Amino acid sequence: MGIPYGLICTCLGVALGGMLGRALRRWIRDELREKLPMLCGITAICSGILSVIRADQMPVVTFSVLLGGWLGVLLRLEQRVRNGFGWVLGKLSLPEDFDMEQYITIVAVFCCSGFGLYGVMVEGFSGEHTQMYSKAMMDLIVAVVFGGSMGMAVSVIALPQAAVYLTFFFLAKLLMPVMSQAMLLNFIACGGVLTVAAGMRMAKIRAYPLIDMLPSLALIFPFTLLWDWVRAAGL
């Protein structure tokens, strides 16, 4: 089994970026800290739209997002994540102006962006690290800037990021024998919907329940298989 070098570099980028941001806090201008979320938000929206339009079966993506979001709300995933991070961050020295709402959004962006999950699955499929190296560079830069306002809390995100990425890395290997082109494109599109939601939230346009939408990423695989079976049966 190949070593996921890209995955490792991405998580290290977040961890080191948070530390560097804290160390360089006095040199990171307040204007940059204020404007960066808006810039990241609009670029995330554009990236997400490009992913969504690649969907092979849009009804499958739509149903996965709706049912996945419903399950997430039912299970109160975002509230549980918020409580878990609240307990962990309570042991750190946080800035007085720490914004928990923005922090949860950043957690979702680092851990669940369509580009990152697609990259880690490609790494699991083929051992190709290029996309994850690109993701590592982007995450490092963003983590440095947010680390300037949130301190070591940003570095903590590397732990759940590693857990999520490793899950999808091994899931890719498990699904490799049955993974179709349609399944992969639908997964990218589903991740794109979440990326658009993250961008809207980062830009403070609309606070979509981002964490609650995560189950849709798992549902996309069985629903694509079911859709293919229905079409093959002529129903």
Could you please describe the fold and organization of this structure?
The protein has helices at 5-23, 30-52, 58-75, 77-89, 100-112, 114-126, 130-150, 153-156, 158-175, 181-202, 215-232. The chain is mostly helical and 235 residues long. Helix 6 runs antiparallel to helix 7. The radius of gyration is 18 Å and the shape is globular. The protein contains eleven helices and no strands. The model has no long low-confidence stretch (mean pLDDT 84).
What's the short version?
The chain is mainly α. It has helices at 5-23, 30-52, 58-75, 77-89, 100-112, 114-126, 130-150, 153-156, 158-175, 181-202, 215-232.
| Distance N to C terminus | 41 Å
State Rg.
Answer: 18 Å
Mind describing the biggest β-sheet? none
Q: Unreliable segments (pLDDT under 50, ≥5 consecutive)?
A: none
The averaged pLDDT comes out at: 84
Structural class: mainly alpha
| Shape type | globular
Number of strands: 0
Protein traits:
single chain, 77% helix, mainly alpha, 235 residues
Write the layout of secondary structure elements.
Elements (H helix, E strand, L loop, with lengths): L4 H19 L6 H23 L5 H18 L1 H13 L10 H13 L1 H13 L3 H21 L2 H4 L1 H18 L5 H22 L12 H18 L3
Helix pairs in contact: 1-7, 1-9, 2-10, 3-10, 3-11, 5-9, 5-10, 6-7, 6-9, 6-10, 10-11
